[in-house]
Amino acid sequence: MSAADTTTAKVPPTRPSSTKGAGTGAGSGGAGNPGKQRAGGRVSGLPWALLAPCLVILLLVLGYPLVRLVTLSFQKFGQAQLWGFQEPESVGFDNFTKILGDGEFWSVVVRTVVFAGGAVVFTMVLGMLIALLLQRVSGWVKTLINIALVASWGMPIIVATAIFKWLFDTDYGVLNWVLSRLPGVDMIGHNWFAGGPQGLAVIMLLVVWGAVPFVVITLSAGLTQVPKELEEAARLDGAGAWGVFRYVTLPILKPIIVMLTTLSVIWDMGVFPQVFVMRNGHPEAEFQLLTTYSYDKAFVVNDYGGGSAIALVTVLLLLGVVAVYMRQMLKIGEVE
Q: How many C-beta atoms lie closer than 10 Å to residue 212's C-beta?
């Protein structure tokens, strides 16, 4: 027996292919792609049947209020229509013309955009810094920080707002007392809500405090997926801490960052209870955001049509943010 005979594997003869079962291959949704099609080429309706209850609930919970909002925005609907003394009157685009021609409305829009942008930037930067810090601390410290984050995240907004009101109170605020202990600083009796910028900064701090835990937990989970080999290779190539973060960590976390940024913009554009409770249910003009401004138009002035028009404009602005998010995610998917 030669060496060739001992090293060459004997391959059994191939079985002749049958043309009878050719239609059941992978290309026709048979054994090669199970579950996509049923016999006869018909698509199974089981997925739609399973999704039907969820779709029905979404239509009831989201669909009807949205349709009602659009309807009211094109009507003259006040207290008389609410109590049934008069029928709602269609006014076309008059509500939109009125609010778009109002300088106060545009001031509220600019204030809302600046407020939401500042809150999102501070939330993402602080969340990223804490998430990176958690990668460099011991296990028990990380556990304590995660417990504190979850506890703050799970605190009801009303409770958190009441705590912040106490911290920044003019007469009994803890922050004024602590700052007054510094040399040359006298903050006793300082009113943080005497002006809009300071008051909105306090409310922004409250919003950031409530949003950071979600960002930290999500980014911490994403950081565990960054390959250590790439970081070590970047360090061997001479990259410092910032270079490793910029060229290795950040590109891998980009889908998560885009998602968190979009969600933060949507949430911060819709801030309502923080402003409403902090200003005792009556936000002053310099504290008005789109949500509180729409509420005042509808339930304080009893102009439900105008309030609905403002709310609809807010929804359209948020849809623009969602469109940008979807475009970024599609670009990321094409690159991958």
A: 22
Alpha carbon 156 to chain centroid, angstroms: 18
In 3-state terms, what secondary structure has residue 183? Answer: coil
pLDDT (tens digit per residue) in 48-102: 889 899 889 988 888 888 888 999 999 988 888 888 788 888 888 999 999 999 8
Cα–Cα distance for residue pair 110/295, rounded to 1 Å: 18
Long-range contacts of 66-72 (CB under 8 A, 24+ apart): 66/315, 69/308, 69/311, 69/312, 69/315, 70/308, 70/312, 72/304, 72/305, 72/308
- Gap between the Cα atoms of 93 and 301, Å rounded: 19
Amino acid at position 207, single letter: V
| pTM flag (> 0.90) | no
Q: How far apart are CA 152 and CA 40, in angstroms?
A: 56
Q: What is the 3-state secondary structure (H, E, C) of 54-77?
A: HHHHHHHHHHHHHHHHHHHHCEEC
Q: What are the angstrom distances between the C-alpha of 102 and each of 254, 314, 322?
A: 39, 15, 27
